[in-house]
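Quick board copy: two proteins, each given as sequence then tokens.
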Amino acid sequence: MLIEKQIHVEPSKPLADDKPSGNGSHHPIRIGPPTVRRPMRLAIVGAISLIAILAFVPGSIQKWLWMREVGYTGVFWTLFSVRWGLFGAAFVVALLYLWINLRLAARNGDRRQRCRTKRRAEYA
């Protein structure tokens, strides 16, 4: 004679801030185009970089050849270094500005989400 034992297993409960998606599961629904794989991203970045280099280099070589012909290579290198220095400084300033603002937005958005979750838990 076989005795069957009833086993009761409670389903796992989602976290307070984990809400089900539209289809009822707790897995996020992907919206938008499919993600591009890493090799494809590298190929795209490489192609854009190559196009940028090919657009920049011929003009610089032409200017350098002309300045060398007239005897102003020092002026060329001064202008070249000043342009790249200004670009680098502007790039760093813009990068810092964006980085600081994105960090503040992420921190404040997280705090706002925690407050909503806490309020939902109090009313539940």
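And the next:
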Amino acid sequence: MSGIYIIINKVNNKTYIGSTQTTFADRWDNWRSLLNNNKGQHHPVLQNAWNKYGAESFKFRVLEEFPGSITKDEVREIEQWYFDNFKTHDTNGGYNIATYASHSRQKYDPATIKLLVDTMGVTANTARLWIRNVEKYGVAF
């Protein structure tokens, strides 16, 4: 079972959109484990918010479930629709650092680069490198 999910900060209503090929329960367990153990470095904006507001300030919701026959490209297209409509790559509305669900079309949102620079105390080049590493390896470091 695959699908699209959203993580919502109940304090400021900022959101993170993601997709999974595993069960939603497993994906949420994985997120909580990473973030609770400060291992969400591949999503530094979400990790900072988790650290600031605490686990109890976040909720996980399923947006859409797909049958096993859907392709990864189809999932990415639908995920992109959610990115665009929830504006989760906009630093005012969300925690996604990617502008596009498909990493092959990745563009770096200047506001996201600025937010990483301001919150993480890194240079703009380091912020871009983090995003490229997330695309390539799934982690920022």
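Board note added afterward: Residues 2-137 form a domain with the GIY-YIG endonuclease fold (CATH 3.40.1440.10).
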